[in-house]
Specification:
Strand order of the largest sheet: 3-4-7-8-9-10-11-12
Low-confidence stretches: none
Oligomer: single chain
Mean pLDDT: 97
Strand content: 25-35%
CATH superfamily of the largest domain: Glycosidases
Number of helices: 11
Helix content: 25-40%
Shape: globular
Largest sheet: 8 strands, parallel, barrel
Distance between the termini: 30 Å
Structural class: alpha/beta
Radius of gyration: 23 Å
CATH topology of the largest domain: TIM Barrel
């Protein structure tokens, strides 16, 4: 058995964890909305057409914020299409995903769904085919009490009280050539700055997210952030970052090391933000919104065939990745990475929530079930609230295709307000367990309360409607406390949540 050591101290604080770190994303794409959260006539549908079985799974995740309605979709979206009587809403061609959008579910309906699942809306405005004027109008419609044209229209449409949406995205991936009305950094920065000014004039209480590079590997990465922030730094609050990983070659050790790329991406964007702030002599510090992250590669080939066969269809089954056990391990490491950067990453949205590269899957007219990646997100959301601690970890390492010196034990810790401590750990070792010894003398008397373990002997194991519990959490070994030293066995290839409470 290999050995690793961790030293923790309450004074080794990274920062307070923003509850919005455990957010998600619903785009008008594939079956995320139609057949996902919404399916009138389904046996579990409520009077508004929303699936209760899906809502139950979402509530268990305790998702604090959901980004909506896109995504690439939003860059060609007219928000006015999604309000008013449903029978008068237009059907539109969605150029982003080659489908037809009926607008049956719109702003009012989504706000209602968000209330039902106890989450908040993070609304994205169209800075692609539209601009600042439309952005300020939707803020007025959503958040102004009454007495103006747009707010009175909201009241007329059945919502007397404002929606109170506090978090807004200024477009989506505007550096991408695939984006509707792709812009240069200067063009986008100017549009984002003017939209931000007008939106905050309507409602000074809102927070705004500017589009960073859509990927770490974009040829304009870095130049994009500097160029657009030169224009809008003073009027925005966050910069978005997006990152997806895949394992098409079946290289499990290399795949599980990809969170090291994620950490480097975060630190690089933070450095750029601070450089622009320094250039402007600003006392303001920008934070990051990691508002798209996940594993995504399983469905790529089938998506091309679906669009080729059914172009302009409604709610095509696109991006329906079926996640396996090794995907869940990487998702766990990605969550650990964000916790280790909780001083600057304040918002994060797993993309997406239902059916579309999602932790929750459904069958039209049938069941809903949790995919493998559901479990690390649920555990982090449930137990990763409080103060992120900076652990000192001494772990054996390995080399892989892209990295050398990859720690076999990927771990961090969170201190809750009641003094309890949660350790999150991924053992990347393909064969060996790791005996983890933790120095916890700084926390007083603790006792092991629970060890939640996610493990499967087959890294390609998946959950399905007929076998939804194939990969699911189980009870691990609680470990042993001896004075201020805690020891626990972390099994090979496993995600672990270890909770210790005050005696």
């Amino acid at each position: 058995m290999k050995k690793a050591r961790m030293i923790l101290d309450r004074d080794y604080s990274i920062g307070q964890i923003d509850r919005r770190l455990y957010g998600s994303f619903i785009e008008h794409l594939g079956r995320a909305v139609y057949g996902g959260i919404y399916e009138p006539g389904h046996p579990s549908a409520d009077p508004n057409g929303f699936r209760r079985d899906v809502m139950e799974l979402v509530r268990k995740l305790d998702v604090p914020v959901v980004r909506y309605p896109g995504g690439n979709f939003v860059s060609g979206f007219n928000w006015e299409d999604s309000v008013g009587p449903r029978d008068r809403r237009p059907r539109r061609l969605d150029l982003a995903w080659s489908t037809t959008e009926t607008n049956e579910v719109g702003l009012h309906e989504f706000v209602q769904w968000a209330k039902e699942v106890s989450t908040e809306v993070m609304y994205a405005v169209n800075l692609g085919s539209r601009g600042p004027d439309d952005a300020r109008n939707v803020v007025e419609y959503s958040n102004h009490k009454s007495g103006s044209a747009w707010s009175d229209l909201r009241v007329k449409n059945g919502a007397k009280e404002p929606f109170g949406i506090k978090l807004w995205c200024l477009g989506n991936e505007m550096d991408g050539h695939w984006q509707i009305c792709h812009k240069t950094a200067y063009e986008y920065g100017r549009a984002a700055n003017e939209a931000a000014k007008m939106m905050k004039w309507v409602d000074p209480s809102i927070e705004l997210v500017a589009c960073g590079s859509s990927a770490y590997g974009m040829p304009t990465f870095g130049d994009w952030e500097i160029g657009m922030l030169d224009e809008c730094y003073d009027n925005v609050d966050y910069v978005s970052i997006h990152r997806y990983y895949g394992n098409p070659t079946g290289d499990t050790p290399g795949f599980l090391a990809r969170s090291m790329d994620m950490d480097a991406f975060i630190k690089t964007v933070v450095s750029i933000c601070d450089a622009v702030g320094g250039k402007k002599h600003s006392k303001k510090k920008l934070h990051l919104s990691f508002d798209e992250w996940n594993v995504w590669y399983h469905s790529n080939a089938q998506d091309r065939e679906i669009v080729k066969r059914d172009k302009w269809g409604k709610a095509l089954p696109l991006l329906e990745d079926v996640y396996n056990f090794e995907d869940a391990l990487l998702v766990g490491s990605m969550l650990i990475t964000m916790l280790r950067n909780a001083d600057r990453v304040k918002i994060a949205c797993m993309a997406q929530l239902v059916n579309v590269i999602a932790p929750i899957m459904t069958r039209n007219g049938g069941g809903a079930w949790a995919q493998t990646i559901y479990w690390p997100l649920m555990h982090a959301s449930r137990y990763g609230r409080g103060t992120a601690l900076r652990p000192v970890v001494d772990s054996p390492t390995y080399d892989c295709s892209d990295y050398s010196g990859v720690p076999l034990l990927d771990a961090t810790a969170v201190l809750q307000e009641d003094g309890s401590l949660t350790l999150f750990a991924v053992n990347r070792d393909m064969e060996d367990d790791i005996l983890l010894t933790c120095d916890l003398r700084a926390f007083g008397k603790l006792r092991p309360e629970e060890h939640i373990l996610l493990h499967h002997d087959d890294v390609k194991a998946v959950n399905t409607e007929t076998d939804p519990d194939n990969v699911q959490p189980m009870k691990g070994m609680n470990g042993r406390m001896d004075g201020g030293t805690f020891t626990v066995t972390v099994p090979a290839l496993s995600w672990n949540v270890i909770r210790l409470v005050r005696e």
